[in-house]
Amino acid sequence: MQISMYQASVPCFVNVLTNLKAVLKKGEAHATAKKIDPSVFMNARLYPDMFALTRQVQIASDQAKGCVSRLAGTEPPKFEDNEQSFAELYARIDKTIAHLQSFKPAQLDGSDSRKIELKQRDTVRHFTGLGYLFDYVYPNFFFHATTAYDILRHNGVEIGKGDFMGHPEGVKR
């Protein structure tokens, strides 16, 4: 049986992004309750040479929308990367989820052998669709979504594994 590239990508990305938005909402509520300027969280990072929370969310969004677009053979939409508030991060996540949900299974299924060319700075990487999804996008997407979660947890937001995982029974496969 051939893998459904749609089922392997869109529901997973939507689920994690939905959970990430819920985690961010808990971060915003925590900042409000503790009278912490929200920009403290927006600019928080786990280590000085790591990206801040805002950039972690942007990259997770970029990985998801870029992946599904490329698997479908379309150009990924470009977002400005200018979010500076929780509300703007929610809007970015919502826009990303809407983009993901605009695809139909027929647009992605069969893309496991599609040639994907990814230009990064001064290099070009070549993948098959399956390798791109599982070996490149998934690790990057989960790294940045997890790091966003970790930044909030490190800063005292009361979240746990269940917040990151969400409710799998809500995932439509």
Strand order, largest beta sheet: 1-2
The CATH topology corresponds to Four Helix Bundle (Hemerythrin (Met), subunit A)
Which series of helices and strands comes N to C?
HHHHHEEHH
Secondary structure category: mainly alpha
Approximate helicity band: 55-70%
- What's the end-to-end separation, in Å? 16 Å
CATH hierarchy class name: Mainly Alpha
Poorly predicted ranges (pLDDT <50, ≥5 residues)?
Answer: none
Care to count the β-strands?
Answer: 2
Overall 3D geometry? globular
Question: Superfamily at the CATH H level?
Answer: dinb family like domain
Can you put this structure into words, describing what you see?
- With 173 residues, the chain is mainly alpha-helical.
- The protein has one domain (5-163): Four Helix Bundle (Hemerythrin (Met), subunit A) (Up-down Bundle).
- Helices cover 60% and strands 7% of the residues.
- It is built from 7 helices and 2 strands.
- It has helices at 5-33, 38-42, 53-71, 86-101, 105-108, 129-154, 161-165, and strands at 115-120, 123-128.
- Strands 1-2 form a two-stranded antiparallel ribbon.
- The longest helix is centred in the N-terminal third of the chain and has 29 residues, at 5-33.
- The protein is globular, with a radius of gyration of 16 Å.
- The mean pLDDT is 94.
